[in-house]
Specification:
Length: 430
């Protein structure tokens, strides 16, 4: 039985995400959030005991002593790798910090924007099947660059333990506090606030479907970055592409978890050529998967993924933009011409030597990206995600005198006499 199904006849149904059990999960999430909202710390402690087997009655937060002990456990070689990733991510994101504009739209009328960091942010770092210390870097670094004053990181302490590299990365990035909580209950605590958790102004971070559906539900109480998770990739190849590279890229995404999706899009003149490319990738998948300790996740993920083909660049780009992948790998001969036509993707990886893992860890770009097609309307996390832009206007009397008749005319046309009067009153002063 094939690991990845080849679909010979293209139709938009191929691009559907796996939404199995979504309604059931959403109902469970709704109950968790309601309990957190009504019972606060008590409910949070109960859920953490049930789901993560950790007793938080003596404290919900990581202590300085715990951070110090964890840091001592991280091998120096891993510290060096985290430090290098930190430098690259910091360099790329520090260049994103905007400056407020100051424009005189006409004489005596000055308009500007004031750049203000979001005050209290909550950073969610998954801790289910892998210790994602890289996500700590991806969220904490732009938050610090933006100037956020209160940075709370929330991550589950499975069996009472948070992976030492996660705590090392959090310490390196200057996170203010670390909450030992995960899942929908952590999202609820940050969105609503509890006796011990100060309500956040905005929540960031990826997660499984429980986390994503929780973020979706709390949006009327707390802003979120985006719906990020489960993870996904679209690998685009042609007959000249290296099958082993494509297979490795599919596996690197599929191993995130059984809900992940890894799509193979083949550029080919006909079904015969496409199937030949697919067969080569399938053989490499079979070869590589035997080396993978997370093969159960990979097989489950691939079972809800597809391989299909398109003939022209226009058809190729249409499929890419309709799917709007979180990660897009263009590992084909005319990658640059295809990139020109890409309108919807979270992050793009160009050519044979740009694996998704480069962006996931250390190239410098952010790996917290929109999933489930939301790349059609939103971007991945950046410094912009952590700031507000407040418009400011300053008019002189001469500027208002010049612009005033236009304002009055527009206000009266909308039937808003008070708006017009606020101008006339000022101009009638002697």
């Amino acid at each position: 039985m094939a690991l990845l199904e080849f679909v010979s006849e293209y139709n938009p149904e191929i691009l559907k995400r796996n939404e199995e059990n979504n309604d059931q999960i959403d109902s469970a999430v709704a109950l968790i959030l309601r309990n957190i909202k009504e019972r606060g710390d008590e409910a949070l402690i109960e859920y953490e005991e049930n789901f993560d087997r950790v007793d938080l009655k003596d404290g919900l937060y990581v202590t300085e002593e715990e951070i110090k002990r964890a840091t001592d456990l991280v091998p120096q070689s891993l510290k060096d790798a985290i430090d290098r990733a930190y430098r690259n991510i910091y360099a790329f994101h520090s260049a994103q910090l905007p400056k407020g504009e100051l424009i005189e739209t006409e004489k005596g009328v000055l308009c500007s924007r004031k750049i203000v960091p979001i005050e209290r942010v909550g950073l969610y770092v998954p801790g289910g099947t892998a210790p994602l210390f890289s996500t700590v870097l991806m969220l904490s670094i732009p938050a610090k660059i933006a100037g956020c004053k209160d940075i709370l990181l929330s991550t589950p302490a499975k069996n009472g333990i948070i992976a030492p590299p996660v705590l090392y990365a959090a310490s390196l990035c200057g996170v203010d506090r670390i909450l030992k909580a995960g899942g929908a209950q952590a999202i609820g605590a940050m969105a609503y606030g509890t006796e011990s958790v100060v309500k956040r102004d905005k929540i960031f971070g990826p997660g499984n479907r429980y986390v994503s559906l929780a973020k979706k539900r709390v949006q009327s109480f707390c802003q979120i970055d985006m719906l990020a998770g489960p993870s996904e990739v679209m690998v685009v190849v042609d007959r000249a592409s290296k099958a082993s590279f494509a297979a490795a890229d599919l596996i690197s995404q599929a191993e995130h978890g059984p809900d992940s999706q890894a799509m193979l899009l083949i550029k080919a003149k006909d079904e015969k050529e496409a199937y030949s490319v697919y067969e080569n990738v399938e053989k490499e998948l079979e070869r590589l998967i035997g080396k993978m300790p997370r093969d159960e996740y990979i097989k489950k993920s691939l079972s809800s993924s597809k391989a299909f083909f398109r003939k022209t660049d226009e058809e190729l780009s249409q499929a890419i933009n309709e799917y709007a992948p979180e990660h897009l790998i263009l590992s084909l001969k005319d990658a640059d011409s295809i990139l020109e036509m890409v309108k919807s993707a979270g992050s793009v990886f160009m050519g044979d030597y740009s694996p998704e893992s480069a962006g996931d860890y250390a190239s410098g770009t952010n790996h917290t990206l929109p999933t489930s097609g939301f790349a059609k309307s939103t971007s991945g996390v950046s410094v912009d995600s952590f700031i507000k832009k407040i418009t400011v206007q300053r008019l002189t009397r001469e500027g208002l005198a010049s612009l005033g008749p236009t304002i009055v005319n527009l206000a009266l046309a909308e039937g808003l006499e008070g708006h017009a009067e606020s101008v006339r009153e000022r101009l009638s002063e002697h």
